[in-house]
Amino acid sequence: MKPRLRFAPSPSGYLHIGGARTALFNWLWARNQGGLFVLRVEDTDQERSSLDSVKAILDAMRWLGIDWDEGPEVGGPEKYGSYFQSERKAVYREHTERLIGTGHAYRCYCTKEELDRAREELKARNPKAQFVYPGTCRYRKDQPDLPFVVRFKSPQEGSTDFVDKVFGPITTPNKAQQDFVLVRTDGYPLYNLAATIDDHLMDITLVVRGRDHIGNTPQQVLLYRAFGWEPPEFAHLPMMLSPKGEKLSKRHASVSVDEYRERGYPPAGVLNYIVRFGWSSGDQEIFSRDELVQKFGWDHVNKSDGKFDEKKFADVAFEHLKRPELTPLADYAKNVRPFLAERGLASPSDAELTAAIPGVRERARTYKDAASDLDFYFRDVPEVDPKAREKLLGPEAAARLVELSATLEGLEPWDAAALEAQARQWCEARGLAVKDVAQPARVALTGRSASPPLFEVMVVLGKARTLARLKRAPSLIPA
RNA sequence: GUCCCCAUCGUCUAGCCGGCCCAGGACACGGCCCUUUCAAGGCUGUAACACGGGUUCGAAUCCCGUUGGGGACGCCA
Q: What ipTM, to 2 d.p.?
């Protein structure tokens, strides 16, 4: 059978960068193997789940270019049913009954209040101790009128083992296992139960998830066995921690995928960074999406956690922006447009935009920066940075620019080489250093002290606008 | 507290089935070059096998211990 992988987010917020990484590893392997990638929404916690979150997560996945073969909005074979766990209650109920029937699970009538109290009392006596459910209801008779949860009857002897594709064999003594809850009082299944049933029913062959799930894998293996099912394979990923080595949170970096989009990072760059985090292919750092699919494998997935590095991330993303083979001009143009609009610039034509992009490509680290660098091209009158003007554009220099514009008037052809030759000659004839003219010209043309190469700017701007901006130079100086 | 896991430059990592490694790449940081600006680019420098025992002719690589770090132990996922 073809491999079937899945990503199963719980819709209680945006798509977390760590979640995106989990989704990516699943997706990469599915694509590499010609298997199927399933998206399943784990919304059994009614309190926290929302449709808005589902939408946000789907949008973020689409932006990253991680597409799913089965799941919300695309459906799937009839036999797999809904890809929303909240719509699968009947399935869980039926399977729970089965477990109770075979003696693998039982109803527990202890209330949350009683248990919480016991937990607190224990804590008061011994702050370090951990409450373990004592199995009070294991052999209790059914109480038809009382609310109950369903607990799994964990074995107390032996051990539960599984072989992880990343970590190798993992053994957990069963005595470390308590009678964990399968179904809540409100009838909704808990994670371990729902995930196990769904992974089996949806024919998932390999479960890839964060290392924080290693601990409940034995519980799930126990469940598979209780149902008489063969567990799938498991692969756990090392965690992506904050620069300080703590759990990654808003304090340290952007954790929402949306933020990366808003900050102007290219999706393929984001993917590249998060996959190289924990996986490698020799010394190669930069990969296209296709290359990732082709080269990905489990042999070189690391076991140890790592710390997120903003600088490295930015560099990887930048690398994608710089290389035309990774970000073709047309894509670059398409992606920079929203940021141009954000600055209140009217949409330039594709021709204008693609002519201007090569000049900013190797200096703009994000699409947002690119929009900023491109800004002066698309305003009738560029915004002038006062500092640049004060430093570089005095009255004398401005007057010279007017003179220069006159000599450029008849220049043919209007290309960078001709412009440079002409300008150099002109400077030389007057005994001027090129930079004494170039810098003031830059301010007049772009309003800034830093820009793409001057003569390229002139070419992109075109003769008419270049001359007009040069002639306007004296008016830039305040009286 | 119990259980599980991890350990190469500041960071991500190569190497890990032992000799090619007095440890390679990338980011960051420093220097030089290029240069009309900012970048980009080229060259270059600083910088790591956590520690202690084994095994072996030989260990970053295998084994044990110590230390350090992380995770799990919910009617969250």
A: 0.95
